[in-house]
Amino acid sequence: VQLQASGGGLVQAGGSLRLSCRASGRTLSRYAVGWFRQTPGMEREFAAGINWTRGSTGYADSVKGRFTISRDKSENTSYLQLNSLKLEDTAIYYCALKRGLGYSTRPDEYDYWGQGTLVTVSS
Q: pLDDT for 8-55, tens place per residue?
């Protein structure tokens, strides 16, 4: 499985971005997708997750109400909509796949990772 993340960039505080994560090489019916983010010197942290089949979602408290995760089954792509961005949202964002139906907040439970896309929020 290969994951291709895209959509990062430079945005002003309060702005929006939409990240994409396209999977190739496998259908995702038995996977969950997680979005994580990481800043230098910090652990990779969970941002949002989605069960591919049921579409159930979950969010970290820090992004709840501002970020929305979704998936397009026909495109084998997951999206993370980032709204009301804050300076502290600046990070490299990664998408990941986990076998099984439920997403996890633990990065060590994921089996495949994309290359990351940088989001920079400026004041």
A: 999 999 999 999 999 998 778 789 999 999 999 999 999 999 999 999
Q: What's the burial of 123, exposed, middle or buried (CB within 10 Å: 0-12/13-18/19+)?
A: exposed
> What contacts 40, CB < 8 A, 6 or more positions away?
none
User: What Rg, from alpha-carbon coordinates, does the chain have?
Assistant: 13
- Displacement of CA 95 from its chain's centroid (Å): 5
Three-class secondary structure of residue 108 per DSSP: helix
State whether residue 29 is helix, strand or coil. coil
Q: Where are the beta strands (DSSP E) in 1-123?
A: 2-6, 9-12, 17-24, 31-38, 45-51, 57-59, 67-72, 77-82, 91-99, 112-113, 117-122
- Token pair for residue 23? 């999977």
Distance (Å, whole) CA 123 – CA 119: 13
Measured between its terminal Cα atoms, the distance across the chain in Å is: 37
pLDDT in tens, 67-111: 999 999 999 999 999 999 999 999 999 999 999 879 999 999 999
